[in-house]
Amino acid sequence: MNISKQLINWYLDNKRDLPWRNTQNPYFIWLSEIILQQTQVAQGLPYYNSFITNFPTVFDLAKAEEQEVLKLWQGLGYYSRARNLHASAKYIVTELDGQFPETFEEIIKLKGVGDYTASAIASICFNQATAVVDGNVYRALSRLYGIDTPINTTQGFKTFKTLAQQLIDTKQPATFNQAIMEFGARLCKPKNPDCNSCPFNNKCVALQKNIISDLPVKLKNTKVTKKHFNYIVVLSSDQKTIIEQRQGNGIWQNLYQFPLIETSKEANHSTIYSEIEELNVLKGKIFQLSVFNQKPIIHKLSHQHLYTKFWIVNLEQELPEGVLTSSIQSYPVPILIGNFIEKFNF
């Protein structure tokens, strides 16, 4: 029996019952694949259910306000996925009359869709034999065949894409693609893979050579920077605060935050007090300053670690230009700020 058949047989006996496996609706499959980029199934499932409840069709998603989409996405991270999802929904509705593209070549043109996502949709929804290559596939194939080509290189992608394309069952491309992803997620895991239960344990090169923990190979070229964030949480006498929308092209683009003061090192009371006095909205006003968390909260992103403090400014005056603290929960915010809002209990 060849590898493809063994893999499919294992999958049919062991697959999880997930909602997007019970449909071929390209909108639902696309939505699930975007959510599951950089996100594990257990975390992504509630978000998938929320999205299809709030936006049951691509038309519903297209007509939604971006703030509504971002709020529903809150906590998943990598917010560009949500913005691209929304933009592509608008494109499908306005330019394609609501008809989802049906070929790999057309699907990959959607904003936020790469080779993996286009391959998944094309195979699952339209039975095209386009092999998926994601982290699970890299890991499974690199171990099974003993391939040490770094996966985060152009040559690595070509090597694994070519191999996956050779292995795919052209009569059952959807089942094969889902099988190899499920295999990597549940059996050939990054740590402590279940080699005893693996249907390929008599063929696996990495197991035979005892190099499972060495594969796949990934070049380390990301330098992590350290930043010190100080959020200023204003509380006025008329139960208002200040919240502003982030601009630019950063990861939290268009999300909301409290006024931010970034410092070169961990800030103390006097440093923040003098900085606050320069904020236009607080100039000339009487306030008291206290720190909510003495020890910085460390929020780790892929390229930077944020050491964050929240500073409470009690203002003895009204704040006409502020927003009511009772409405703060309605704004889409980064999870770092969302966690603070829950703890502070406005």
Automatic annotation (TrEMBL):
Co-factor requirement: [4Fe-4S] cluster
Q: Which reaction does it catalyse?
A: Hydrolyzes free adenine bases from 7,8-dihydro-8-oxoguanine:adenine mismatched double-stranded DNA, leaving an apurinic site
Enumerate the InterPro entries for this protein.
Answer: A/G_AdeGlyc_MutY (IPR005760), DNA_glycosylase (IPR011257), HhH-GPD_domain (IPR003265), HhH_base_excis_C (IPR023170), HhH_motif (IPR000445), MIG/MutY (IPR044298), MutY_C (IPR029119), NUDIX_hydrolase-like_dom_sf (IPR015797)
GO MF terms listed in the record are: 4 iron, 4 sulfur cluster binding; 8-oxo-7,8-dihydroguanine DNA N-glycosylase activity; adenine/guanine mispair binding; metal ion binding; oxidized purine DNA binding; purine-specific mismatch base pair DNA N-glycosylase activity
Q: What CDD domains does the entry give?
A: ENDO3c, NUDIX_DNA_Glycosylase_C-MutY
Q: What does this protein do?
A: Adenine glycosylase active on G-A mispairs. MutY also corrects error-prone DNA synthesis past GO lesions which are due to the oxidatively damaged form of guanine: 7,8-dihydro-8-oxoguanine (8-oxo-dGTP).
Entry protein name = Adenine DNA glycosylase
Q: Which organism is it from?
A: Olleya aquimaris
